[in-house]
Specification:
This protein has a 5-stranded antiparallel beta sheet, with helices on one face. Strands 6-13-11-8 form a 4-stranded antiparallel beta sheet, with no helix packed on it. Strands 10-9-7-12 form a 4-stranded antiparallel beta sheet, with no helix packed on it. Strand 4 and strand 5 form a beta hairpin. By secondary structure, the protein is mainly β.
């Protein structure tokens, strides 16, 4: 997502009767943009783990404090993200003495368990929805994760 797209969203919301708008962009690192319109201003705040700076626009003037480098590049062709469906603790293996479910560079198949996210003492197995090759593991073992946080990047077969 680039600054021109953010400006376009601001203009659309400003001209519409909407008071709130929240957008989650899958190719945007699992992050989203929340636009909240008040009487005199519109505020755009990125949500997610690595939130870029706030971007604000006031009636009559626009001031953007974020640059394109604040936003991650979109995924390449044939690349997909596996995101966390819940808030919890990420585990790469079923137990501390077991090998990880997957490693970077390995092939996986749809339905294969790729990790566990523990939430409220429940171990939730996360399965891949696609077959492909694990290009990047973005979370460390035993690290807390948020809903929608990107865990893996997969190159689809």
């Amino acid at each position: 997502m680039n600054i021109d797209k953010v400006k376009e969203i601001l203009e659309l919301v400003e001209k519409s009767p909407l008071e709130n708008l929240e957008i989650e962009v899958k190719g945007f690192g699992g992050r989203g943009v929340r636009v909240r319109k008040g009487q005199l201003s519109t505020e755009v705040v990125s949500t997610g783990v690595n939130s870029p700076k706030s971007i604000q626009a006031s009636e009559g003037q626009t001031r953007l404090s974020a640059s394109d480098e604040d936003f991650p590049p979109p995924l390449g062709e044939g690349m997909v993200e596996i995101t966390s469906p819940i808030v919890g603790t990420f585990y790469r293996a079923p137990s501390p003495d077991s090998p990880p479910y997957i490693e970077e560079g390995e092939s996986i198949v749809a339905g294969q368990v790729v990790c566990i996210v523990e939430a409220m003492k429940l171990m939730n197995e996360i399965q891949s929805e696609v077959s492909g090759v694990v290009k990047k593991i973005l979370v460390k073992n035993a690290q807390p994760v948020e809903f929608g946080q990107v865990l893996f990047i997969i190159k689809v077969d």
